[in-house]
Amino acid sequence: MALGLKCLRIVHPAFRNYLAALTRPVSEVNLKIVSERQHDYSQYMACSALPIRHFATKKAKAKGKGQSQSRVNINTALVEDIINLKEVDEEMKSVMEALKDNFNKTLNIRTSPGSLDHIAVVTADGKLALNQISQISMKSPQLILVNMASFPECTAAAIKAIRESGMNLNPEVEGTLIRVPIPKVTREHREMLVKLAKQNTNKAKDSLRRVRTNAMNTLKKSKDKVSEDTIRLIEKQISQMADDTVAELDRHLEVKTKELLG
Questions:
Q1: Residue of 220, 208, 211 lying closest to 245 (CA atoms)
Q2: What's the maximum distance between 2 C-alpha atoms anywhere in the chain?
Q3: Comparison of pLDDT for 41 and 162, the residue scoring more
Q4: What letter does residue 50 receive in the DSSP assignment?
Q5: pLDDT per residue as tens digits for the range 96-123
Q6: Which family does it belong to (predicted)?
Q7: pLDDT tens digit string along 152-170?
Q8: Ramachandran sector of residue 68 (left: φ over 0; alpha: ψ -120 to 50; beta: rest)
Q9: 212-215 long-range contacts, CB within 8 A, separation 24+
Q10: Is the Cβ–Cβ distance between 107 and 256 less than 8 Å?
């Protein structure tokens, strides 16, 4: 059942068009700014094009059961004084891009020198990428060498970072030279990489939940000056954006899982 939120003054010439419109669902909801005379401030209200109420038949209810609810598509410019939805969208997309980057750089069947480049090493100057403090080379198809001669004081930290990288690597050290044997591609190794992919996806979902929570908290601050209908619409928009991103995260995990298992 769709409820119209704005009354329409029916005049005789438009009466027939109005009756015809009653049989059509409202496809989208627009946001409109109205002026509150008594308190002299602008208020955001949710308005539909027509005051339409639909009563679903049993067949329609059965058909719609299990289907996703109607989507909203708010014009971000109309609510920018309440919340910056473009910024929220960018933050959610950055979570997605970070996971894709993680999959591409660290979760590969064949470990290569490039896989070690961006391993974060904790140093006295903060976190630095391994390739910034060492020279990484391929000694053989089974061995990668990490030369720490330029930053010998970071050798221990580099070894720790490689071990905790989630790539199932067990480095060995000889002075300032770190030897990294490449794991054999076994079924066990593949399954371990899939497990890591799932863990990284769950971490990405945690980051996404934080973005959603922060957006909802920002929205709550405007409840005193914005109508409840508008708040609900924006909340639905934010939840819809988060759900879309979760679906995208799951899709990339599915693709990566197939790739890793072969």
A1: 208
A2: 93
A3: 162
A4: S
A5: 999 998 888 778 776 677 788 888 999 9
A6: Belongs to the RRF family.
A7: 999 999 999 999 887 778 9
A8: beta
A9: 212/92, 212/238, 212/239, 212/242, 215/83, 215/88
A10: yes
Residues 178-219 pLDDT 10s = 999 988 878 888 888 899 899 999 999 999 999 999 999 999
Question: Model confidence over 227-262: pLDDT tens digits?
Answer: 888 899 999 999 999 999 999 999 999 999 998 887
**What is the C-alpha to C-alpha distance for residues 102 and 86, in angstroms, rounded to an integer?**
24
Count H helices, E strands: the chain? 8, 8
- Percent pLDDT > 70 in the chain is 73
In three-state secondary structure terms, 8 is: coil
H helix or E strand, kind and range, residue 41:
strand 41-47
Phi and psi at residue 37, in whole multiples of 5°? -65, -45
Superfamily (CATH) of domain 76-107+186-261: Ribosome-recycling factor (1.10.132.20)
Amino acid at 207: S
Which token pair is 153? 């004081």
Give domain 113-181's CATH architecture: 2-Layer Sandwich (3.30)
Task: Please state the domain extents for the chain.
Answer: 76-107+186-261, 113-181
Phi, psi of 129 (to 5 degrees): -70, 145
Residue tagged 């109508």 (tokens) = 227
pLDDT at 68 (0 to 100): 53
Handedness of CA 180, 183, 188, 190 (dihedral sign): positive
Closest CA to 190 of 85, 110, 93: 110
In whole angstroms, what is the distance from residue 118 CA to residue 107 CA? 13
